[in-house]
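Journal club prep — side note

Before the paper discussion, L.F. wants everyone to see what a predicted structure for a comparable chain looks like in token form. Sequence:
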Amino acid sequence: MDLERTVQDLADRQQIADVLYRYASTIDYKDYATMRTLFTDDAVGKYGDADPIHGADNIIAWIDSATQDRAWQHHKLTVYHMDIDGDQAKTLTYHTSHQTTVDDPDTVIVIVARYKDSLRRDSGTWKIFDKYMEVGWVEERHFSQANRP
């Protein structure tokens, strides 16, 4: 057993997972400055049926625009697969998010999707260079005042 290689592999896996989880929490808190640090400059993002977005700054601007009316967001992620090959990795993450809007706080939008990400080590830090969100379904759930806590 190569102990040094095993330790490096475990460290890489943890660092990659941290990037994926941080991506979700930065969306929830609209922390776009931190989110930008998670992408390479030349990153490409594809969200559902939307056209691919080229460049990290454009991805962040698109997410900002798409979530302007969101009052609250909660992303739940589970990283299912992580395949590391040297300084690159491919991951599969299952995603469920709940979102409310400013105009309709009694309706929650539920999105169930998969993220297929490609990351690379950039100056010792793992960053996303390709993100694809494969949307499974989107639904709205309406709550009456009687159901509120």
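L.F.'s comment for the group: Residues 3-147 form a domain with the Nuclear Transport Factor 2; Chain: A, fold (CATH 3.10.450.50). Keep this in mind when we get to the figures.
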